[in-house]
Amino acid sequence: MNNQKCSTLFQKPRGRTRIIQCIYVVGFMDLFGVSMIIPLLSHHVKALGASPTVAGIVGSTYGILQLFSSTIVGSWSDVVGRRYSLLTCLLLSALGYGLLGMSTSIALFVLARIPVGLFKHSLSICRALLSDLVSESERPLVMGHFNAASSVGFILGPVVGGYLTEHEGGFYTSSFTCAAIFLINAGLVWMLPWSETLVHRNDTNSSNNTSKRCHDNHCSKSVQNGSHTNKNHVLLAADAEPGSRAPEKLPGDLRWREVPLLQPAWRQLSSVGSKIHMVASSDMWDLFLVRLLMAIAIMLYYSNFSLAMEERFSLKPKVTGYLISYSSTLGALAGFLVGPVTQLYKNNMPALLLHSTVLTCSLILLYAAAPSVWQVLLTSTFFAISTTIGRTCITDLELQRGGVQASGTLIGAGQSVTAVGRVLAPLLSGLAQEFSPCGPPSLGVVLALAAVGLLLIRIPKWDGRGMTKTDKKL
User: For a disulfide at 408, which of 74, 315, 355, 413, Cβ 3.0-4.6 Å?
Assistant: First the structure.
């Protein structure tokens, strides 16, 4: 009976594949639209009459709002489900970019940035949705493809935005185009076959383990409106049926019930607060600290790249731009390497994260000491690959250790940590640059070494919380 029940999980793979492919398209279009606007924002706010100081303050509004809203919105997506939270973020982001297209004053510009700063978390929710749809072994491959699709959009967007800007009212045309793209994404998400898809989750490649998990009701969950409807995944031990086996304890004890969308706001807020508290009190500080250290180190690498190339090698800005575009393109293509590399490591994500962090640290050091442009080109080539793999690794480890029921909260918390890095990196870069053009990347080497040391200390203490059962046997 149990085997027959488990076999029904494989009846509708087409719906799941359609959702995954559509999410790739959403990720591509999302960053395509945003990257049309980003290079033009500083020019537009100055055209509105803002002084450099006011322009800097206005520009920081978005980052500050993202810092505080990332975890909250991610947790809210765990509460009400991916579909409605993703639709809300897309529609309110479209509203923000539409208002940006009508901004003829500083006040209206700031007003337009508020809904975008609070709700532009569509990519984070897409990643949480993908983690819901695939097994743990498939997750790095799918996340790598999603990151690649998004990166391609980020590369192509500035080209289109620059072309539109050459015409009269180009900024406003770009803004309305971006708003239209988010509306199209919202329509695409709305039409996805949410109610028809049954998702099979299989954390190992062993058929015996699969049969056992099906017997315990742990290997499957359905996605209804983007929300987990199999309550066996979120019931506490005390809520289990008499005589039944208690649900398996999730890493970090991150287990909870979901709250329907139409429940009172106070109940949704209470559930969101509970999720955030559980993540904050879990023993995951080491992963978040590694994420912060590496985020700052990578940002320091890029912080004064153009200026350093000019001062160290007398490189023209045009050539530097080509070098940056080359690195960005490699970073996008590297997303397709994540799956094969994780298979090579047999899904041993802690080891892969350690090795990618060591490689990134070494490449930053080589860049800081590079005697020629050709060595910079070489380091940029491998740097784009190592950072792409490392970013996917640390996200996957956060989901492994935190549990799939916390995916939205965990990914949102990771984005908040990265936002802290965006705040600190320019300050540290300015201070380090006072000493030398190589100061920022040299400081990045120190921070990356600290991350390597932390991983060497903490990985043996994870006791499988950041590893699969297969990894334990290695």
Answer: 74
CB-based contacts of 104: which residues, under 8 Å, 6+ apart? 48
**Helix ranges, 192-337 (H):** 207-215, 265-281, 285-303, 305-313, 317-334
Q: State CA 282 to chain mean position distance.
A: 20
With tokens 């620059």, the residue in question is 162
3-state helix, strand, coil split of the chain in percent (to 5) is: 80, 0, 20
In whole angstroms, what is the distance from residue 316 CA to residue 120 CA? 35
Give the residue with greater pLDDT, 288 vs 159: 288
Nearest to 115 by CA among 139, 132, 90, 137: 90
Query: Which residues lie across from 228 on neighbouring strands?
Result: 223
Is the full-model pTM beyond 0.85?
no
Q: Which tokens is 387 given?
A: 């950072």
Do 391 and 337 form a contact (C-beta atoms < 8 A)? no
* Residue 198, strand partner residues: 222
As given in the structure block, the two tokens for residue 100 are 């940006």
Burial profile 92-116: b = 16 or more Cβ within 10 angstroms, e = fewer: bbbbbbbbbbebeeeeebbebbebb
Question: DSSP of 411-460, one letter per residue?
Answer: HHHHHHHHHHHHHHHHHHHHHHHTT-TTHHHHHHHHHHHHHHHHHHHHGG
Helix (H) or strand (E) holding 315, with range, is none
- Supply 314's token pair: 């007398």
Confidence at residue 63, expressed as pLDDT on a 0 to 100 scale: 81
Contacts of 451 (CB under 8 A, 6+ apart): 289, 290, 293, 294, 297, 357, 361
φ/ψ bin of 268: left (φ > 0), alpha (ψ from -120 to 50), beta (otherwise): alpha
pLDDT tens digits, one per residue of 425-474: 888 888 888 888 788 899 999 999 999 999 999 888 775 444 444 344 33
Q: Give 361-405 pLDDT, tens digit per residue.
A: 999 999 988 888 888 889 988 998 999 999 999 998 888 887 666
What is the rounded distance in angstroms from the CA atom of residue 145 to the CA atom of residue 128? 14
Count Cβ atoms below 10 Å from residue 373 Cβ, excluding itself: 16
Taking residues 143-157, report their average pLDDT: 89
Domains of the chain (ranges, CATH numbers): 15-193 (1.20.1250.20), 270-462 (1.20.1250.20)
Pair 294, 302: CB distance under 8 Å: no
C-alpha to C-alpha distance for 295 and 54, rounded to whole angstroms: 27
Section 280-302 average pLDDT: 88
How open is the CA angle 17-389-210, to the nearest 5 degrees?
A: 45
